[in-house]
Each structure stands twice: as structure tokens, then as C-alpha cells.
């Protein structure tokens, strides 16, 4: 691994500098030995880039990448630095990693989560906006939405949009069929839910049984079931406004109304009742939708963020008053430097209803709605020695098997989600409870205390337990009869071990 590239002590010093944000120390170490940028720790295999991205030290992230750090390097859990930045909401770091063409579609080893899942589960909507930038063209939103609208009730089959790379990325499911929309709805992040729906996330996506499945809600649950569990009224309203069904049953036979009652979300009952006549408000497009982001991101990748020096022949950027104008807004034609244009596209959260077409951002000079940027002629392409490989569409996204069509239930008013057989390609060899935000009891043993997997602890527990003989006799009976009927601790060993894996990786970063 990266430990072979130099003294281990120097590598640990670089890790400490990346964690603490000590730019001068990191620069001194990399000037002495640039190969230290590829160093990784012995325990969790976290690189200095993982530490800097998790802590939000954007200058050190840039320094490491310029010295040859692998932008797509994985730690022991298969998590990249992009996932760490999305977990903690450092959108500036996400922007920098995208400029160096990181792979946004990679999933971790534990539960198949992408960076989009990490951003959605913690409600980091700016990170979501950046992650989908390479999939959303800089074109009028009406023309895109006209070709990509998903039918509201989900019964009309798949259309052209659902075969697009954007839809495959947004609707990519982690273990158990959980999408980013499920997690944003569960945790009540309305802005994330609205943005994902504007990107045409599937409101009818259902979960399925998978080892440590979400038994508290049930397999076959839609994002509306998860929103009912979370209890956020606006999330339920926007899901219903975009075509979610109140009458969908999961595999436990529960409606979203039943889930709300189980979790004491009584304020949702008038809205989720199957015969409800509650008026659902009309929601405008998300204010975090940014159409020109793709164009300015590509310009920044090709020509860099450092604009040419100001001269008599060039105009000065009207925002920063320091750098020369290098991009022009289509429509009004006002010029900005590429750095200010990128910052504007990444941070603007003004409703497009007041400035122009949906998804546009206001020009800082005339308030005209901008949907795209173009570069000024004469800009020189930057020289780069970095690895520029961005896989926008990996095989798991482009060639994902379509689930079988669901057969209608006997009653026409209710549609019950039946979990179909799942291809083995979707399963990860090591799994755990997919998301820590929902506490799920992993053990269902009723024959005594749940035993640890360390040998010494097991023996000590058995010796001190007054039910030792009873446990031993029970174990002998289990060996005589054929295995399984119900899930036991031993069958969940891999799930618990994978949880300890992630804890080990995260404890290094948060030390």
C-alpha cells in the first residue's frame, strides 16, 4: 500500500497535518517527498486525502491532489475521500474533488452506499447539487423535464428518462434497495427530497429483504413509508405532490398511514389517510437546482481556476475585482472570472421563480436568469499532470437489471409491493445495517445473552452465566436439527464485523 513510499513516521506526520489543517507542515513534507501523498494508515487504510476531506481542509486537499494523491483511493471500508466530504457536508472539498475528476458513482464495500447516500442521509443539499453536476446538462429545465417526467403512480412502466445516466445515478440503491430519496425522506430533509424529486428520483422505489433489512419499517416500502416514519409533514406533502401513492402496501401489509401510527406521527394521519381530501400545496422547482453548473465546471477543469492577469485589454471580474473575466453568461453576456462563476453556481439558493426559468441562477449584475456559461476566446488550456479519468457511468449504473413488473393486487385501490427475486450481482459479500441513523436490533436470539465474537469473552460469559447448562443443551439441539428457521447472532457475524470495520476507519479520522 502507500506505506511503501517512504518513512512511516513521515507519513504519520502528513496524516496529522492533514487532520489538523496544518498547511505549512503538509507542504514541507510533500516538498521533501511527494510520494507521501499516496501514504495510507495501517489500520483503516485511510490516506491523508481522506483525513483532509473529512475535516474540510480544502487547501490541503488541493495540495495533496497536485502532488499525485489518488482522488479515487479507498480505505478499508471501500470509502473514498468524496464520501467522507459528503458525510460531513464539506461542499468546497466536493467541488475540488470534482475538478480533479473523481468518480462519483463508486460504492463502498460495506453496504453499497455512494457519495449521494452519504450526502442525503445527513441533509447536505449543496453536496447533492455538486454530485449530479455532470449529469444535468446546461439547458432549459422545461425541455429536460418534458422528456423525463416520471408517471405519478408508477404503473406506466419505464420511459426514456428512466434509462438515462442521471436517473440511474440518482436511483442507485444501496443494500436492501434503499435509495438516497428514502434516507432524505426518513430524516426529514425537505430541501434534499425536493431536489432529488426535481432530478426525477423514483417516488415508487421499494426496498427488499437483505440480511439486516429495515424490519422496523418493512421491506417493500416506498419513500412515503420512510417519510411517514420520519414524521416531516413537508416531505410527505412533496412526495404526494410528485405522485407518491397513499394506498401502497409494503410486505408487512402496512400503508404509510400505518407506519405513521406505529411511530406516533399523529399529525400525519389527516394527510396520509387513503380517503384524505386534504389539499396538497403545489411546490415549485427546488431553489438548489443549478443548470449552469455543468458548463462552468467543465470550463474550470479544462482551463483551471487561475484566470489570466488583468490588463488594459481584458475586463476585471465585477464580483471579486481581482481576476480577469474568463467566462460569459449566456443571455446577458456579462463576464465573470471562472472562480466566481463556479462559486455562484455552487452556492446560489435563490428561487428561480424571481429571476427566470427553473434551475437558472441570477446574474449578479443584471439579475437575468443564467442557464449556461461560455468561455471567453483566447483562454489557454492549463497544463496538468494529474490523472483525469471520470467514469460517469459505471457498469452497475448502465447495465443494472430491470426489476420484474409487479402484479396488481386483488383490490384495485391498494397495491401491495411484492419483493421479487434479486440478482446476486446486487449483493455485497460483506454487509451491515445500511445507515446508522436508524437503530435496528441486529440480534433476535431468545436463548440467553447475546455472545461476543471474541473467544475469551465467550468463555468468560459462559462460565459466569447461571444458564450455562441450559445454553449448552439448547446449542446441542440446534446442531441436531436442520439449520435455520430464524436469524441468530452467528448468522449475523459478517454484519457485526463490517460495522466494526466502519467504526475503525471513522475512529482514525475523528481521533
UniProtKB/TrEMBL annotation:
Keywords: ANK repeat, Metal-binding, Repeat, Transferase, Ubl conjugation pathway, Zinc, Zinc-finger. Residues 317-367 form the RING-type domain. It is an enzyme of class 2 (transferase). ANK repeats lie at residues 44-76, 111-132, 176-208, 219-251. GO terms for biological process: positive regulation of transcription by RNA polymerase II. It holds the Pfam family RING_XB3-XBAT31. Pathway: Protein modification; protein ubiquitination. Its EC number is 2.3.2.27. This is RING-type E3 ubiquitin transferase. It comes from Trapa natans (Water chestnut).
Amino acid at each position: 500500500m502507500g506505506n511503501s513510499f517512504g518513512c512511516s513516521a513521515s507519513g504519520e506526520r502528513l496524516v496529522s497535518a492533514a487532520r489538523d489543517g496544518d498547511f505549512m507542515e503538509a507542504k514541507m513534507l510533500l516538498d521533501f517527498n511527494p510520494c507521501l501523498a499516496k501514504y495510507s494508515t495501517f489500520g483503516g487504510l485511510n490516506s491523508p486525502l481522506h483525513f483532509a476531506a473529512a475535516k474540510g481542509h480544502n487547501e490541503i486537499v488541493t495540495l495533496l491532489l497536485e502532488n499525485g494523491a489518488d482522488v479515487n483511493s479507498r480505505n478499508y471500508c471501500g470509502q473514498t475521500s468524496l464520501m467522507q466530504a459528503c458525510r460531513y457536508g464539506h461542499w468546497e472539498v466536493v467541488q475540488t474533488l470534482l475538478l480533479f475528476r473523481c468518480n462519483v458513482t463508486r460504492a463502498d464495500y460495506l453496504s453499497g452506499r455512494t457519495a449521494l447516500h452519504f450526502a442525503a442521509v445527513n441533509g447536505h443539499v449543496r453536496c447533492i447539487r455538486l454530485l449530479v453536476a455532470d449529469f444535468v446538462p446546461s439547458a432549459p429545465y422545461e425541455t429536460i423535464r418534458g422528456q423525463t417526467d416520471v408517471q405519478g403512480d408508477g404503473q406506466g412502466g419505464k420511459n426514456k428518462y428512466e434509462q438515462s445516466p442521471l436517473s440511474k445515478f440518482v436511483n442507485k440503491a444501496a443494500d436492501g434497495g434503499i435509495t438516497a430519496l428514502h434516507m432524505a425522506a426518513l430524516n426529514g430533509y425537505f430541501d434534499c427530497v425536493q431536489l432529488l424529486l426535481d432530478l426525477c428520483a423514483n417516488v415508487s422505489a421499494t426496498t427488499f429483504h437483505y440480511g439486516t433489512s429495515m424490519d422496523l419499517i418493512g421491506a417493500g416500502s416506498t419513500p412515503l413509508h420512510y417519510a411517514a416514519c420520519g414524521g416531516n409533514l413537508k416531505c410527505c406533502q412533496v412526495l404526494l405532490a410528485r405522485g407518491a401513492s397513499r394506498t401502497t402496501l409494503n410486505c408487512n401489509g402496512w400503508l404509510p398511514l400505518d407506519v405513521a401510527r406505529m411511530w406516533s406521527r399523529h399529525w400525519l394521519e389527516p394527510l396520509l389517510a387513503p380517503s384524505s381530501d386534504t389539499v396538497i400545496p403545489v411546490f415549485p422547482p427546488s431553489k438548489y437546482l443549478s443548470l449552469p453548473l455543468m458548463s462552468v465546471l467543465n470550463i474550470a477543469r479544462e482551463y483551471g481556476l487561475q484566470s489570466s492577469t488583468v490588463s488594459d485589454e481584458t475586463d476585471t471580474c465585477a464580483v471579486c475585482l481581482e481576476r480577469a473575466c474568463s467566462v460569459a453568461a449566456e443571455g446577458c453576456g456579462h463576464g465573470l472570472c471562472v472562480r466566481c462563476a463556479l462559486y455562484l453556481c455552487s452556492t446560489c439558493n435563490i428561487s428561480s421563480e424571481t429571476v427566470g426559468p427553473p434551475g437558472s441562477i441570477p446574474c449578479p449584475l443584471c439579475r437575468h436568469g443564467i442557464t449556461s456559461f461560455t468561455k471567453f476566446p483566447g483562454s489557454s488550456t492549463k497544463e496538468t499532470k494529474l490523472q483525469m479519468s471520470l467514469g460517469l457511468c459505471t457498469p452497475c449504473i448502465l447495465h443494472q437489471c430491470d426489476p420484474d413488473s409487479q402484479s396488481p393486487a386483488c383490490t384495485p385501490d391498494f397495491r401491495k409491493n411484492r419483493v421479487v427475486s434479486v440478482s446476486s450481482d446486487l449483493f455485497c459479500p460483506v454487509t451491515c445495517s445500511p445507515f446508522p441513523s436508524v437503530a435496528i436490533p441486529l440480534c433476535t436470539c431468545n436463548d440467553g445473552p447475546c455472545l461476543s465474537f471474541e473467544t475469551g469473552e465467550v468463555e468468560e460469559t459462559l462460565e459466569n452465566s447461571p444458564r450455562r447448562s441450559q445454553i449448552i443443551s439448547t446449542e446441542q439441539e440446534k446442531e441436531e436439527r436442520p439449520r435455520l428457521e430464524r436469524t441468530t447472532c452467528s448468522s449475523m457475524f459478517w454484519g457485526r464485523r463490517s460495522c466494526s470495520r466502519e467504526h475503525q476507519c471513522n475512529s482514525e479520522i475523528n481521533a
